[in-house]
């Protein structure tokens, strides 16, 4: 059987699909990952077929947009990119689809995959990486860090989602989507993020139920498996300079603002300042070193390092709240401080706090002293250490991948 996977986004979006693709390949299936060119080498190293949908230049132009990391404008940027690539994305899927022997595996916002599934009746699944995509009249995802509307009256919850859709979500995507659907002979979709983004055949949540407890009104086709936890650790070694730094002193604090973030100069200034205030060492991870301040001896920069190989030797993890990064932190059993900016990050940060392993600081307050204070409390708190160990023991990557593969194979 051929599985055509269509992840959309940065490394945190692509890596889970690669992990699942590797597992499917080990079970005897053909796997093709259709995504942006910067991830081609990672896909090929995993032994999977690669199909380019976006060039490296196009991807770089998208992630350079300064609005990408804005709490509100970032969603408009992403959905605008999705809208502009609906028709080309569909053609890519069409070129890879072989009737009778292909299962489509789509990302939350690979809308072209959903349309292909709908138009051709193709066997398909939607994979969601984080619980924030699921709306509910019961427990709500956090709109902002710590803002839990779960106790609000139902009419207020529904009104809030209606307002979010009409003012923020629908304008950049719905007109283009429905114009294209009209050309394809399909009826319009009202508020696509309410229900339509979920495949009616199979929806898989790539997180455990203790991180995102299923609600009574979540999609009936949904099954939760667990965090895939893929970071290329089987192909990428820890660079020699980083190994020497790790061996040269006390456990450092890892700071990473996300693999595609090119607007993180303030994040790294705060990282160096906070580390100095704490008298701790810092490992700074970014592919874009131009945004780093001058580094003192206690700080070390690396473009990329598999988190699974360094986090178990670190004191804490400071990051943007991305689901892949936080899952690695949970597996390593270390406390986490987040600077959530948008997308699923505020909800993820809130869930880490509920688990007793993390805190957050809003971007406008993310400066040296507040970061140092929060890290000191997290690192020194016995209850936080206990909770970190508890949830690390609950992680089970192999079982999650096996269950995800079986759910996808059922579609064949």
Could you characterize the architecture of this molecule?
This protein has 412 residues and is α/β, with parallel strands linked by helices. The protein has 15 helices and 13 strands. The protein has helices spanning 11-26, 40-45, 56-63, 73-84, 86-96, 111-120, 154-183, 240-247, 265-278, 307-310, 323-332, 345-355, 368-380, 382-392, 397-410; strands at 2-6, 30-36, 49-54, 102-107, 124-128, 203-205, 222-224, 253-256, 282-285, 299-302, 316-319, 336-338, 358-360. The strands form 2 sheets. Strands 3-2-1-4-5-6-7 form a 7-stranded parallel β-sheet, sandwiched between helices. α4 packs parallel to α7, α5 (86-96) packs across α6 (111-120) and α9 packs across α13. The chain is globular and about 65 Å long.
Give the total of beta strands: 13
State the end-to-end distance: 7 Å
Number of helical regions:
15
Judging from the principal axes of the Cα atoms, what is the shape? globular
Brief overview, please?
This protein is an alpha/beta fold and 412 residues long. The protein contains 15 helices and 13 strands.
Topology, element by element:
Layout: E1 2-6, H1 11-26, E2 30-36, H2 40-45, E3 49-54, H3 56-63, H4 73-84, H5 86-96, E4 102-107, H6 111-120, E5 124-128, H7 154-183, E6 203-205, E7 222-224, H8 240-247, E8 253-256, H9 265-278, E9 282-285, E10 299-302, H10 307-310, E11 316-319, H11 323-332, E12 336-338, H12 345-355, E13 358-360, H13 368-380, H14 382-392, H15 397-410
Parallel strand pairs: 1-2, 1-4, 2-3, 4-5, 5-6, 6-7, 8-9, 8-11, 9-10, 11-12, 12-13
Helix pairs in contact: 1-15, 4-7, 5-6, 9-13
């Amino acid at each position: 059987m051929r599985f055509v996977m269509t992840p959309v986004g940065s490394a945190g979006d692509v890596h889970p699909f690669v992990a699942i693709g590797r597992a499917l390949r080990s079970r005897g299936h053909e796997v093709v990952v259709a995504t942006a060119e910067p991830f081609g080498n990672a896909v090929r190293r995993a032994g999977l077929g690669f199909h380019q949908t976006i060039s490296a230049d196009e991807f770089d132009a998208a992630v350079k947009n300064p609005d990408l990391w804005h709490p509100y404008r970032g969603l408009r940027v992403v959905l605008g990119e999705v809208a502009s690539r609906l028709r080309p994305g569909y053609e890519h899927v069409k070129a890879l689809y072989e009737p009778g022997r292909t299962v489509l595996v789509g990302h939350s916002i690979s809308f072209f995959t959903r349309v292909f599934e709908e138009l051709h009746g193709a066997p398909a699944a939607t994979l969601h990486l984080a619980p924030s995509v699921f709306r509910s009249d019961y427990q709500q995802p956090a709109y902002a860090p710590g803002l839990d509307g779960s106790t609000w009256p139902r009419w207020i919850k529904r009104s809030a989602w209606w307002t979010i859709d009409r003012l923020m979500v629908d304008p950049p995507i719905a007109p283009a989507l429905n114009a294209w659907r009209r050309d394809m002979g399909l009826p319009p979709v009202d508020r696509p993020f309410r229900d339509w983004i979920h495949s009616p055949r199979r929806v898989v949540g790539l997180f455990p139920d203790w991180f995102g407890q299923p609600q009574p009104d979540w999609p009936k086709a949904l099954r939760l498996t667990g965090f895939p936890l893929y970071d290329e650790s089987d192909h990428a070694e820890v660079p020699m300079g980083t190994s020497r730094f790790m061996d040269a002193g006390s456990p450092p604090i890892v700071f990473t603002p996300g693999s595609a973030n090119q607007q993180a100069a303030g994040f790294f200034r705060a990282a160096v300042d906070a580390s100095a205030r704490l008298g701790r060492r810092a490992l700074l991870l970014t592919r874009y070193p131009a945004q780093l301040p001058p580094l003192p001896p206690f700080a070390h920069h690396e473009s990329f390092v598999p988190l699974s190989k360094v986090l178990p030797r670190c004191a804490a993890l400071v990051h943007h709240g991305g689901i892949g990064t936080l899952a690695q932190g949970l597996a390593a059993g270390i406390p986490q401080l987040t600077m959530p900016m948008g997308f699923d990050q505020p909800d993820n940060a809130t869930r880490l706090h509920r688990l007793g392993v993390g805190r957050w600081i809003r971007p406008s307050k993310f400066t040296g002293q507040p970061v140092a204070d929060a890290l000191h409390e997290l690192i020194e708190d016995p209850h936080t250490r206990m909770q970190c160990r508890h949830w690390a023991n609950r992680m089970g990557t192999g079982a999650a991948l096996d269950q995800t593969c079986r759910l996808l194979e059922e579609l064949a």
